[in-house]
Amino acid sequence: MAEAFSASVSILFHGCAFAMVLYLVSVGLSVTMGLMGFVNLAHGVFAALGGYIMATTMTSMGVPFVPAVAAGVVVAMAVSVPLERFLYRRLYGADELEQVLLTIGLAFMSVAAAKFLWGPLPQPFNPPPALSGQITLGTREFPTYRSFLIVSGAVLVTVLWLGLERTRFGAQIRAAVDNRRMAQSVGINTSRLFTVAFALGSGLAALGGALGGDILAIEPAYSLEHLVYFLIVVSVGGLGSIRGPFFAALLLGVTDTAFQYLLPQFGAFFIYALTLAVLLWRPHGLFGHA
Amino acid sequence: MTATAAPTPRAASVVEVFAHRHRFRVAEALPWVAAVALYFLFPDYLALGAQILATIVFALSLDLILGYAGIITLGHAAFFGTGAYVAGLLAAHGWGEPITGLIVAALAAALVGAVSGAVVLRTTGLTLLMLTLVVASMLYETANKASAITGGADGLGGMNVWPVLGCQFDLYGRTAYWYCLAVLFVCWLIARAIVHSPFGRSLTGIRENERRMHAIGSPVFLRRVTIYTIAAGMAGAAGALVAQTTAFVGLGVLSFDRSGEILIMLILGGVGWLYGAFIGVPLFMILQDRFAAIDPVYWYFWIGLTLVLVVVFAPGGAHGLADRILRARRRAAAGGRP
Amino acid sequence: MRKIPLVLPVIAAATLALGTAAMPAAAQTVKIGVINTSSGPQAEVGEMLDKGLELYYKLHRNDLPKGVKIELIKRDDTGLAPEVAKRLAQELVTRDHVKLLTGFVWSPNFMSVASVATQAKIPTLSMNAAATEAVGLSPYMTRISFTLPQEAYPLGLWAAKKGYKKAYIAVTDYAPGHDAGDAFAKAFKEAGGQVVGQLVFPAPPTTPDFAPFLQRVKDAHPDLLYIFVPAGGEAVSVMKAAVDLGIKAAGITIVSTQDLVPDEEIPGMGDSIIGLITSGTYSADATRPANKAFVAAWDKEYGTKLRPDFLSADAWDGMKAIFELVRHTHGKFTGDQAMAFFRGYKDEHSPRGTIMIDPKTRDIVQNVYMRRIEKKDGRLVNVEFENLGMVDAHGQVVSKK
After folding, report:
1. Which ipTM value was assigned to this complex?
2. Which residue of C has its CA nearest to A10?
3. Nearest-by-Cβ selection for C41 from A14, A120, A215
4. In terms of domains, do C377 and C265 share one?
């Protein structure tokens, strides 16, 4: 009995840490897909970029952890702006197939570029000593860094939700997600909104990629390898939502970890089956709009 | 099969000539003549040639659902892989006869297509895209974990493929080449018959304006599931071809990479006119073969860049490009009038 | 107006592309096909292999009978991709007309080539691929590297004798992983130990998150953990996860075979691995004269920052065996003659010690050592502290030297 309890705690803990990383990376995708109606399969590239920049500044320039992560976020946001304005913008409202192909092409290019620039090995991930090792909570020990991840994730989702619900900017986003034409006719500058939202989404992805470099290894094929999971979080959570992906990520993270731990002979099979079931029941996701 | 006269000036684009005309034109014999010629011209590359032919079958099946029915799928490899594994398992467990193996594999893939189609084709847009991806991923995980049956990451070896119609599969790929060519020919005839039939026309209707099709009482859902099933069966046949000619099945037959690649190959050639497969597949695979020898890293970059450029500047692929060139020439010939 | 048959540009493109056809061969050039992994996540493993064989090739390329040359044709299988390897083997045989195939980082890749080897009667020498059943798949397959049971079985016996009672086994989910885990478990149980649990890590190319798996190990409270992961980036990741989860602090000793601590990776693993015990066939810091000469040649060619590891030593030995074959036969040999040469091939001056190819099984027999990670002159090194003798491919000791 005690063993089952201990196993459950382990599963919940690692599952939540995994979920936080998934959430951080995917929330930006959810907002931009709901906002711009653009199928962006290259979203993971920004997460990888954040991770790579963080790793590089830490190892070759000796920059400490927090500024390195910040650098990753800033670079990703900077890259996202011209990408959105000059490339993605051309395909708003275009056929889904073209959006899929364009973004897959970009993802392929990023894989090759990452391999060329940083080599094929996963990047070393070295959090500061303060966040390494173990901490004791009650009778058990937990890896400190993952505890930090869980806390950061919870804080971030709160900040994001407040931002969406309480600020004018958030209201504009909500309006544009609900009805773009109407939002435009009341004077919201949707094209600037898109650029800013896209940059923010990419920045969040970079944050997720950098902070989560332990769980989702920072390697060249990052964006393609984890694409399915990001898409699952977004589609199960519901496009354009902040809370939806959070719960979807928790569901996905904990279930995946539970199966890895208890029934590894099934691998990710039940995750996919679960996704299938949820999407058939609620095609627009748990928190999505019709 | 009668050859017809050159098209009247009213038949404006390449699409109409190839896709809408029932009767076979002389030009349509060209791919087959070329295939036979290539057999004699490049005897050292027949193994690659056989793989190209098998992949054209795969791309053809995708064109049926993507180009004609307008169903975007990121998981078409599910059917390809099912066919490959079924054919592989048959050959590995005592039944190595290729043709019957291929038929069984195609039927198995069609079954998977029918079941998954009935489930996922109720949805549209992103949800449908996701679900096609999810179905393929489920099959991938199953093959990965059921390694006692499939060999898992190590792959399914130990396949004993019997001679086809008396010809042993040799190391040089001679038998494989003819076998794949014959199967491709049959599949092409089937695909061609479908798209020119009333059923095929209704698919185009569903793709262009689904609401109106509902309004005229067309059984939209049933039609989509039907073409999905047929395409799945054809993809399964392609998978069986690959399995039988290489006597090996790796997990990659079910991977997202495989689904993505076949999409790219078809796009390069042009979607919706059946010949996109014949253009895009050889182009992609030959270039890939050459690039892989030089530097595989660069290949990934260039194919990604090509894809981006094609989407932005040439959305119809080779077909669309040819279309625009021909239209521009016609406009110039007619003295600037559109 | 004629419509351009679009198929013509395809033929043109194909002809152009294929214009880079095979080059004419020299007087008596023996072409050797090397199927290696130069891209993908385990590319650096392939790189170590390549450096080893290139070193021997470069130093000895003129050490051949007059008029005989060896040409290496290298192809990339891009990682764990058996179907690619098989196709490459087919092409090397039919297009490039090689007389021997070698390389092979990945066991599944090596295994998939068996039918090509048999059909074309091409000797195929594995410079790394270590799955036990591979060599038996074709009479033309042989191996110069090692097998997992060769290292894991003696390790299991050694661990049980040392007093460890409860072992947990964690291996990667592919052929060598299963080989290693099963061999270790068998030996450990035979010597009186108890295996309290077994788990598998997902197979490449994705680098898994090792933490939940190691958490499960920790929750089972063993006193010994046997790990096997493919050499390269995964070794670093799993050791890091072990540190993060406090495996050592929980009283669990980690043991492994040499893949966990290849000599060029250990500098990057940090002091936490000091004292780690592994069984293996090669350590860059071994004091044998043959190894000292090898390392000296290596340092001269590649500098001292990159240490040679077991992959490089195995590739060196493999290239040496191939050169010996060519010298012995003056570059003219059939597949059967080559296999007759390899059966019973013995080299007492390998950087690894003594190596031999068993005439009956065509598999490698060699010295296996117990090693410990120590810090010498500020560097982390594998120190061989016991020679278990000549061990065969199944882990049985055949002689004590």
Report:
1. 0.85
2. C215
3. A120
4. yes
